């Protein structure tokens, strides 16, 4: 079955550490996105990529980094520069001229 | 002012009730209108989409778009406890890789 796989489902990080969230899709979608979801704030776009080896900052990119070396993969690194990293992170993808996004099941990151 | 406004609720209804969920928007360029359902600790899943104005029905769900008023609705008939979730409205322009703008989501609880 085609879809988006995010791993891990839960992640704990110590303050000062970088951590990488995985996102893989087998939908043959060109575009991929990372969102952060916090209670009362809705979905906020972190980074997006429309093509391999190219990506753009979203609304809240500070403290995050991404790479897009393969069409299927779009990992997100939460760096120690991110002041409030505890959140639910969602990866999504879309195809050209298709409406809407397909989302993964999310990764809940907690800083301890 | 946000591009998309949605009441976060929570909205509690008895089983069997008709539920009305709504969003308003300000961007006239929006052409595609979507509703996502998100269960707790899961990624959003696309429930319905509508292109431009009009109604669309799928089982117990009806999506309505009024572009003249910049107002969209989702109706759920004969609501079930399994409908308890957060419902996000979303909208985008037409063609290519259009950015999707999301509402904050309305939390719905259907009480048995």
Please outline the major beta sheet of chain B.
Answer: 6 strands, mixed
The chain pair forming the largest interface, with residue counts per chain, is: A-B, 25 and 24 residues
End-to-end distance of chain A: 36 Å
Radius of gyration of chain B: 14 Å
- Tell me how many strands of chain B there are: 11
What integer is the average pLDDT of chain B?
93
Q: Characterize the biggest β-sheet of chain A.
A: 7 strands, mixed
Mean model confidence by pLDDT of chain A: 93
Order of helices and strands of chain A: EEEEEEEEEEE
Notes on the protein architecture:
- The complex is a heterodimer of chains A (112) and B (112).
- With 112 residues, chain A is mostly beta strands.
- Helix content of chain A is 0%, strand content 52%.
- Chain B has strands at residues 4-6, 11-14, 19-25, 32-38, 45-51, 54-58, 61-66, 71-76, 85-92, 101-102, 106-111.
- The model of chain B has no long low-confidence stretch (mean pLDDT 93).
- Chain A binds chain B through residues 4, 6, 30-31, 40-43, 45, 50, 88, 90, 92, 94, 96-97, 99-106, 108, and chain B through 8, 32, 34, 36, 41-46, 49, 51, 88, 90, 92, 95-97, 99-100, 102-105.
Annotate the secondary structure layout.
The complex is a heterodimer of chains A (112) and B (112).
Chain A: E1 4-7, E2 10-13, E3 19-25, E4 31-38, E5 42-51, E6 54-57, E7 64-66, E8 76-78, E9 87-94, E10 102-103, E11 107-111
Parallel strand pairs in A: 2-11
Antiparallel strand pairs in A: 1-3, 3-8, 4-5, 4-9, 5-6, 7-8, 9-10, 9-11
Chain B: E1 4-6, E2 11-14, E3 19-25, E4 32-38, E5 45-51, E6 54-58, E7 61-66, E8 71-76, E9 85-92, E10 101-102, E11 106-111
Parallel strand pairs in B: 2-11
Antiparallel strand pairs in B: 1-3, 3-8, 4-5, 4-9, 6-7, 7-8, 9-10, 9-11
